[in-house]
C-alpha cells in the first residue's frame, strides 16, 4: 500500500512587474490611463466622504510640474488611515469599494483593486499623502510604493487637510504624457462628466476641465433652458463634442440600465457593416468612446453620448456584459428611437423624408421586425418603379395594388414593355424590398400584392387575328429555324411601345435553364455532365412586335437568309436589353449576323436572293 507523502503548504506569488506588463500591453489600450485611474480614485474618495457629511462638496486639482516631469492629483475625499493603507494600497486586488457597505457600494466606479497599478506603467514610484476624514485627529501619512512590491509609510508632521494627494514622476519614456496640455486633454476626455469641479494647474495658472457651476448635471442636460432652445443646445453639444454635424438629436433614457444621454442621427449613410461607436460614461467616468453593444443592432443610424450607472462593462471596456439587464436596456433605448421616428412621421413628414434618404435601409430592416412600425413607415418607403423613383404611398395612390418583381434583372427585363402597356411595376429586387412588399400584402389584405416575371407580361400581349397568323406562317417557321437549338419559341404579337421590335420573356425555370447552359461553358467535363443531367430544358419565348415598322418590313422581306440573320441579331439584342447572360453561341450569332449584314449591304442588287 502506498504511503502518503507528508505535504507542505506553499503560497502563490505574484510577479508584480509581469502583472504591470500584462496591464499595460493587454488591458489598457492608451498610455494615459493612469489619469483615468487616479481621477476615478479621487472621485470615489469624495463620494465616500459625502457619506460622512451629506453637505460636503469637494473638488479635484491636478498640478503639473514641468521641471520635475511630475503630476500631483489632489482630492478632498475620505482619505486613508494607516490600517487602510496596509490593506488597500499594498494588497493587489483588495478594494475598499467592494461589498464593504452592502447595498451602497454601487456608487463607486472602482471595484477591482488594481487601478493604482496603472501608475507604474508611467512612473517608478507612487507617492501618496493622505489624511483620513473619518477622525479629527487622524495623522497625515505618506505612503510610497514601488513596482518591486516594496512600500513604506511615514507619519508626517504637517497640517494637511483631509483628503489625498498622489504624486507621480514620469519615467523618461513617459515624459511626453506629463505636459500640461496632455494632462488637461486626458482629464477632459476621461473625467469631463464627473460630478466634481476639476482644475489643471500649471505654472500658477488654473484651467477648468468642467463647468464648476453645473457639475451635478450632465453637459448634455438642457433642462435649464426654455423648451424652444433645447434642440439647438443639444445639436451644438453634439457638434462640439464629436466634431461633426448631425441630422437630429434624440434624448435617450433607460431606467433599467440607468442610462441618460443623447442619440445623434448621422447626416450620412453609414457603411453597411460599420459598427456604431458610442461614447459611454459609466458612473460619470468615461468607459470608452467605442462601446458597441449598448443600442439594438438596427440602430446604426445614430451615434450616442450617454452615461449609465447600472450596467456591467467587460474587462476590455469596449462593451457591456450580455445579460438580461443589457437586453432590457437595449429594448428601452430602442423604444426611445422608435418613438422619435413615430413622432417625426406624424409631426414633420418632410423631415422624415430627408432622414429616409440617408437611412432607409435601417428603417426598412426595422419595419420588417416590427408590424406597428411597418404600418407607420410603409408609405414613406422609397421605391424604384418603371416610371421612376417614388414612394410607396404615391405608387399606391396611382395603382391601388402592388405589382413587383422579386429581382433586379426581372425588373429590367419587363420595365420598358410594362410601361408601354401602362403597367406600373415596382423593382423589389433591392435588399429587403421583396420581403417588405410581401409583408405589405399580409398587413393590408385589401391591397393585392403580386410578384410578376417577364413571362407574365407576355401573356398580356395582344394576339394577331387568325387570318394574320395564317398569313405569316412562313415567317414564323423561318424565324424559328434561325433560332434552332436555342430553347426559344418565336411568337408574333402586338404590343406597346411600338418602337420595341422584340421582347425576350423567360420564366424562372427557363432562366435557370439558361444560366446552366451558360455556366457549363466554363466548367470541366465532370461538372458539365452533372449540370447537364440536372438541367431540364425549359423554353423561353421571343415576341416579335407586329406593330413595329422594322418587324413588318422584316416579315415581308424577300431574302430568306437575310431575314434569318436579322432574326438572330434581334434575338441577341433582346437578350442584351433584358440583361440576360449570353452563351458563346449567342455571342457568335451576333458577330456572324453583323458581318453577314455588312456583306449583304455591299452586294449589288442583282446578287441579292429572294424567298417569297
Ligand atoms: N484618492 C484616494 N483616496 C482614498 N482612498 C484611495 C485613493 N486612491 C486609492 N485609494 C484606496 O486604494 C484602493 C485601491 O485602489 P485601486 O485604484 O488600486 O483600486 P480600486 O479603485 O478599488 O478598484 P479598480 O481597480 O476597479 O480601480 C481603493 O479601493 C481605495 O480604498
TrEMBL record:
Gene3D superfamilies given in the database record: 3.30.230.80, Histidine kinase-like ATPase, C-terminal domain
One Pfam family matching this protein: HATPase_c_3
Q: Which SUPFAM superfamilies match?
A: ATPase domain of HSP90 chaperone/DNA topoisomerase II/histidine kinase (SSF55874), Ribosomal protein S5 domain 2-like (SSF54211)
Q: Which InterPro entries match?
A: HATPase_C_sf, Hsp90_fam, Hsp90_N, Ribosomal_Su5_D2-typ_SF
Keyword entries, A-Z:
ATP-binding, Chaperone, Nucleotide-binding
The keyword ATP-binding belongs to this UniProt entry's keyword annotation: yes
Nucleotide-binding: present as a keyword of the record? yes
Q: Which family does it belong to?
A: Belongs to the heat shock protein 90 family.
Return the NCBIfam families for the record: PRK14083.1
Q: What is this protein called?
A: HSP90 family protein
Q: Which organism is it from?
A: Undibacterium umbellatum
Amino acid at each position: 500500500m502506498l504511503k502518503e507523502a507528508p505535504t507542505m503548504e506553499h503560497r502563490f506569488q505574484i510577479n508584480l512587474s509581469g502583472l504591470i506588463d500584462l496591464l499595460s500591453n493587454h488591458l489598457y489600450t492608451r498610455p494615459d490611463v493612469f489619469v483615468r485611474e487616479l481621477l476615478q480614485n479621487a472621485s470615489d474618495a469624495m463620494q465616500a466622504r459625502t457619506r460622512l457629511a451629506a453637505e460636503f462638496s469637494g473638488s479635484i486639482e491636478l498640478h503639473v510640474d514641468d521641471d520635475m516631469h511630475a503630476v500631483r492629483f489632489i482630492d478632498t475625499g475620505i482619505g486613508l488611515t494607516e490600517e487602510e493603507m496596509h490593506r488597500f494600497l499594498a494588497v493587489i486586488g483588495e478594494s475598499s469599494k467592494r461589498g464593504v457597505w452592502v447595498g451602497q457600494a454601487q456608487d463607486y466606479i472602482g471595484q477591482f483593486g488594481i487601478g493604482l497599478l496603472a501608475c507604474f506603467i508611467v512612473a517608478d514610484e507612487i507617492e501618496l499623502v493622505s489624511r483620513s476624514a473619518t477622525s479629527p485627529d487622524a495623522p497625515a501619512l505618506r505612503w510610497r510604493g514601488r513596482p518591486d512590491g516594496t512600500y513604506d509609510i511615514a507619519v508626517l508632521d504637517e497640517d494637511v487637510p483631509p483628503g489625498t494627494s498622489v504624486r507621480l514622476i514620469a519615467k523618461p519614456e513617459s515624459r511626453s504624457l506629463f505636459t500640461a496640455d496632455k494632462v488637461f486633454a486626458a482629464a477632459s476626455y476621461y473625467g469631463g462628466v464627473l460630478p466634481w469641479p476639476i482644475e489643471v494647474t500649471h505654472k500658477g495658472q488654473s484651467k477648468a476641465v468642467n463647468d464648476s457651476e453645473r457639475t451635478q448635471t450632465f453637459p448634455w442636460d438642457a433642462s435649464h433652458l426654455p423648451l424652444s432652445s433645447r434642440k439647438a443646445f443639444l445639436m451644438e453639444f453634439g457638434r462640439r463634442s464629436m466634431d461633426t454635424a448631425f441630422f437630429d438629436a434624440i434624448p435617450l433614457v433607460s431606467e433599467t440600465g440607468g442610462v441618460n444621454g443623447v442619440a445623434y442621427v448621422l447626416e450620412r449613410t453609414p457603411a453597411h457593416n460599420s459598427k456604431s461607436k458610442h461614447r459611454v460614461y459609466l458612473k460619470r467616468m468615461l468607459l470608452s468612446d467605442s462601446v458597441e453593444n449598448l443600442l439594438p443592432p438596427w440602430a446604426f443610424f445614430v451615434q450616442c453620448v450617454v452615461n449609465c450607472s447600472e450596467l456591467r462593462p467587460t474587462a476590455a471596456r469596449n462593451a457591456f456584459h450580455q445579460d438580461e439587464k443589457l437586453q432590457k436596456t437595449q429594448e428601452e433605448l430602442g423604444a426611445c428611437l422608435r418613438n422619435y421616428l413615430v413622432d417625426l412621421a406624424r409631426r414633420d413628414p418632410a423631415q422624415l423624408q430627408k432622414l429616409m434618404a440617408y437611412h432607409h435601409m435601417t428603417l426598412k430592416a426595422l419595419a420588417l421586425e416590427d408590424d406597428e412600425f411597418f404600418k407607420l413607415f410603409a408609405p414613406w418607403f422609397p421605391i424604384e418603379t418603371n416610371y421612376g423613383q417614388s414612394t410607396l404611398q404615391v405608387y399606391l395612390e396611382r395603382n391601388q395594388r402592388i405589382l413587383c418583381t422579386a429581382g433586379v434583372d426581372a425588373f429590367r427585363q419587363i420595365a420598358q414593355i410594362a410601361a408601354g402597356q401602362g403597367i406600373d411595376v415596382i423593382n423589389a429586387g433591392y435588399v429587403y424590398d421583396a420581403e417588405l412588399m410581401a409583408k405589405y400584402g399580409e398587413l393590408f389584405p385589401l391591397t393585392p400584392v403580386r410578384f410578376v416575371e417577364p413571362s407574365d407580361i407576355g401573356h398580356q400581349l395582344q394576339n394577331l387575328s387568325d387570318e394574320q397568323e395564317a398569313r405569316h406562317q412562313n415567317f414564323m417557321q423561318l424565324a424559328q429555324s434561325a433560332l434552332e437549338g436555342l430553347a426559344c419559341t418565336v411568337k408574333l404579337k402586338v404590343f406597346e411601345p411600338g418602337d420595341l421590335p422584340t421582347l425576350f420573356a423567360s420564366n424562372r425555370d427557363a432562366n435557370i435553364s439558361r444560366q446552366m447552359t451558360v455556366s457549363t461553358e466554363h466548367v470541366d467535363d465532370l461538372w458539365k455532365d452533372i449540370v447537364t443531367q440536372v438541367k431540364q430544358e425549359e423554353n423561353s419565348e421571343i415576341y416579335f412586335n407586329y406593330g413595329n415598322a422594322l418587324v413588318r418590313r422584316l416579315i415581308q422581306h424577300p431574302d430568306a437568309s437575310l431575314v434569318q440573320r436579322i432574326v438572330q441579331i434581334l434575338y441577341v439584342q433582346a437578350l442584351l436589353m433584358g440583361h440576360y447572360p449570353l452563351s458563346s453561341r449567342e455571342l457568335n450569332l451576333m458577330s456572324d449576323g453583323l458581318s453577314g449584314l455588312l456583306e449583304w449591304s455591299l452586294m449589288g442588287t442583282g446578287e441579292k436572293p429572294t424567298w417569297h
